[in-house]
Structures are given as structure tokens and as C-alpha cells.
């Protein structure tokens, strides 16, 4: 049984982004069409993007996730380059 697109969107916005990740409302735009989730907007840390994507994929009724998310801080390059790490 497939879930309605609006139910999938509500779960992603309220539960995944809001409760689980504690993201500010409106930072990430979520649209769902025929179970395909599209994410756009910006997150704080680059490392958050794959987490958001995986959590959205785990929501019942999601067929796939397309994301075009930007980020404010590239925390992955800092972690990969110890000379750039903040002490």
C-alpha cells in the first residue's frame, strides 16, 4: 500500500527534520510526488546532507530521494585535513 504524498511530506518535515534532526523550519524545502522526495535549501554542516537523505529514504512510502542541498560549513574537509582543524 502506498502512502499519500502529503503524509510522507508531513512525516519528513515534522519527524525527520524537526524532531530527529532539530532543524529550523524552512531551511529545507520538501516536495513529494508519487513517493519521490525532492529536497532543496541549505543545511548547516555538509556532513548532515547524507544523514538527511538516508533518514528520508527510510520513511514508509518513499520511492527515492533527490536532493539539491547546500551547506554553510564544510565540516568534511576540515575533518579530512588535520592542519585546517580548529584547536
TrEMBL record:
Classification via InterPro entries: BON_dom
BON domain sequence ranges: 5-80
Database matches in Pfam families: BON
Superkingdom of the source species: Bacteria
Protein name: Osmotically-inducible protein OsmY
